[in-house]
Amino acid sequence: MEPPRIKCPSVKERIAEPNKLTVRVSWETPEGRDTADGILTDVILKGLPPGSNFPEGDHKIQYTVYDRAENKGICKFRVKVRVRRCGKLNAPENGYMKCSSDGDNYGATCEFSCIGGYELQGSPARVCQSNLAWSGTEPSCAAMNVNVGVRTAAALLDQFYEKRRLLIVSTPTARNLLYRLQLGMLQQAQCGLDLRHITVVELVGVFPTLIGRIGAKIMPPALALQLRLLLRIPLYSFSMVLVDKHGMDKERYVSLVMPVALFNLIDTFPLRKEEMVLQAQMGQTCNT
Fold first, then answer.
1. CA-to-CA distance for 205 and 67, rounded, in angstroms?
2. How many other C-beta atoms can be found within 10 angstroms of the C-beta atom of residue 47?
3. pLDDT at position 188
4. Is domain 5-82 in CATH 2.60.40, yes or no?
5. Looking at domain 153-282, does it have CATH number 3.40.30.10?
6. β-bridge partners, 80
7. Is 155 helix (H, G, I), strand (E, B) or coil?
């Protein structure tokens, strides 16, 4: 008449291993004891078996055993798994963040980088430590500071290597109609230029009155002339040169080009495809 007896292990609490979200938990399978003839059916388990990798949270384990009279004995216990966490980090403005594991658990590593035209300041990587504090210092992305006081055109271009694409617009005079129309179209497409990490460089005039301009920064005439000579840009006609992030001359134009055509070409570059994936994850886009 009495149900069989079965005793479960005590409540277990475990902490996940570094850089993991689970922990392996083992125990001895409990044996049931009958109060009459000692003959029992198999012990039935409800829940994860011993030796399993338990994820974070509370897990109910139940063992059930029956005697020949179908009396039932039950025991229960819980396995609690805790993941030690440092708290979530955020990607810096104008930057990206890539984390291992769950992103904030003990042992996780987060690596930071900036979009083209911005330079990383602070720690490039941070680790969630055993004291539940992040290593290093908070990173930020500062706007790229172009030095136009360099001595050579090669030194100027090196500043953009692996950071920005260049669209070099050259004209013998600021009154050139193609130059004025092209500049107007590029100004209206500024968001698309920024999204594709394009810096516009203007070369206006003929030496010695040649002026080179990158945003608000003015290049010395000798440096602007060097840039024209290095990239073999014509002196006496309107033209444009598209240079990729590795300093390669990708396309040349001798007449107006619509920004959409320029963007379509750049979007075929392998590196640009990787950028597009990251930008989609961050929600970076242009409305128009």
1. 101
2. 15
3. 94
4. yes
5. yes
6. 13, 58
7. helix
